[in-house]
Amino acid sequence: xxxxxxxxxxxxxxxxxxxxxxxxxxxxxxxxxxxxxxxxxxxxxxxxxxxxxxxxxxxxxxxxxxxxxxxxxxxxxxxxxxxxxxxxxxxxxxxxxxxxxxxxxxxxxxxxxxxxxxxxxxxxxxxxxxxxxxxxxxxxxxxxxxxxxxxxxxxxxxxxxxxxxxxxxxxxxxxxxxxxxxxxxxxxxxxxxxxxxxxxxxxxxxxxxxxxxxxxxxxxxxxxxxxxxxxxxxxxxxxxxxxxxxxxxxxxxxxxxxxxxxxxxxxxxxxxxxxxxxxxxxxxxxxxxxxxxxxxxxxxxxxxxxxxxxxxxxxxxxxxxxxxxxxxxxxxxxxxxxxxxxxxxxxxxxxxxxxxxxxxxxxxxxxxxxxxxxxxxxxxxxxxxxxxxxxxxxxxxxxxxxxxxxxxxxxxxxxxxxxxxxxxxxxxxxxxxxxxxxxxxx
Length: 442
Ligand SMILES: Cc1ncc(COP(=O)(O)O)c(C=O)c1O
Prior knowledge:
The structure is a single chain. By secondary structure, the chain is an alpha/beta fold. 36% of the residues lie in helices and 14% in strands. It contains 13 helices and 14 strands. The chain has a 7-stranded mixed β-sheet with strand order 4-10-9-8-7-5-6, sandwiched between helices. The protein is globular. The model is unreliable at 436-442 (pLDDT under 50). Bound molecules: pyridoxal-5'-phosphate. Residues 63, 118-120, 123, 146-148, 211, 241, 243-244, 268, 278 line the site of pyridoxal-5'-phosphate.
């Protein structure tokens, strides 16, 4: 007998197991409302298949790495070949060196890379590089910016009750209170306020870390350029967290797309082709403290990881990057994204709901507000409850996305766009009609 929402007994049993062995029955990060939760059986291209035989168009795509879609033949072939040669060495290997070389070729600020296992690790170690170079401890980050799960990142990335700038609000329990003194918070896209905070704290600051494209919000013209100028003037290091934007906005990431080169960049997601791999990238001079030859010299940065530069991840990353280098790859993703954004925009306008599509054609979503969206506080004014309802209504109609993010890929085709827009139109019809109101939205 089918369970809730047409669920098969097998899927029901798996979800019950999840409730027993995982807190809240989830992995952390994304979760669907319990009634519409499902268990993935397999995934191909842009589609997920669950244990009840249902199919979904997937705009989560592993939370971003799968810009080629699921189980891309080039990635599968590369991984299968490498599997037979060994899965991890904790030693140099050819694929790892080739990937390092390719990152240095692609990413403007990269002369050298240090591999690690996740985007969170990359931003954590990038801050260590900045502190070492600057011999200062504090960092400035932006309200609403997310740099992974570590203690420095989880400050005002999604505060329910933001404080006056530059005071941080911890996003999680378990963060040592002393760290609140180490992190300053500024509003994204507000250069004047950033300039004031930096001027006051310049002598304590090691780095400014930023998602150049923050969650869904593009930088306003001149903002990143201004940030580059301010940090350079004060000798503070500028860190671009390119875990999402790297190889997505352009092959050279946000640095290439927006034309601003930071001192340090973190790449993750796409560069590991769906496997655990990320990297800190910077000039050889900034990276020198990672060199074991520096051990005992005072500025040595200790960084080790069991899976650093894992060869399976490296071949998956190399296969993914090779597809992205093919002529027309980015044009294709951007064109599909633009078509979907435009279609969504038209449907929202027809619906009469106060809403807009925010983002760049490779990653975007709907925000239920008609006010300009320029920073976290303007995102907070959007109707977050309505966004959640909408996301659930889309799951019911076979479209899976995060509450505030749709990742585009090379394999979303015209058919996916058409079916997604049908689902949108249908889901918009059942949304309650009311004015946008204040409320949490993440
Ligand atoms: C901008 C950004 N930085 C860092 C991270 C953390 O990466 P990971 O989940 O691989 O630790 C994420 C994850 O979504 C991210 O979006």
